[in-house]
Amino acid sequence: MGNYTAEVIWHREEQDFLDNRYSRKHRIRFDGGVEFAGSSSPHVVPLPMSESAAVDPEEAFVAALSSCHMLWFLSIAAKHRYCIDSYVDAAMGKMGKNSDGKMAMTHVTLKPAVRFSGDRMPTLKQIELMHDEAHEACYIANSVKTM
């Protein structure tokens, strides 16, 4: 279907790299020009080597799953002629040991709150079915083992 790119940029500058106390803060840039600060998670690498205000890979992983699910859900709702006014997801990921005993993102829980409007309103069952369909269609969810 296509190739997707991200540029990850880190420079040592004046830091003593060999003492393992270097900053993990870096820049992440996408082909459309969006750029943001990335870092290791302060839960993994303590401050000040991590930057708490930056996006860590674990957060980006949760956001990618949530975003993909939302985009599919919006598409499915539009196909069924349901008008969505807002979709807000307070997604959460959990780290733990996987079946191989390695640290991994073992669970990601999506908590979408969807507000519909108009004459045609879905039932709770129809909303659940649309979420199931979105989960099955999501490319990112289909690419990982996380539950």
The total of helices stands at 2
Helical fraction: 25-40%
Mean pLDDT: 96
CATH architecture of the largest domain: 2-Layer Sandwich
CATH superfamily of the largest domain: K homology (KH) domain
Percentage beta strand = 25-35%
Number of strands: 7
Main pleated sheet: 3 strands, antiparallel
Order of helices and strands: EEEHEEEEH
The N- to C-terminal Cα distance equals 25 Å
Number of domain units: 2
CATH fold description of the largest domain: GMP Synthetase, Chain A, domain 3
Please describe what this structure looks like.
The protein has 147 residues and is of the alpha+beta class. It folds into 2 domains: 55 residues, no CATH class; 87 residues, GMP Synthetase, Chain A, domain 3. The chain contains 2 helices and 7 strands, in the order βββαββββα. The strands form 3 sheets. It has a 3-stranded antiparallel beta sheet, with no helix packed on it. A two-stranded antiparallel ribbon has the order 4-7. It has a two-stranded antiparallel sheet with strand order 5-6. Helix 1 crosses helix 2. The chain is elongated and about 65 Å long.
Summary of the model, kept short:
The protein has helices at residues 57-79, 124-137, and strands at 6-9, 26-30, 35-38, 83-89, 92-97, 103-109, 112-117. It is an alpha+beta fold. The strands form three sheets. Strands 1-2-3 form a three-stranded antiparallel sheet, with no helix packed on it.
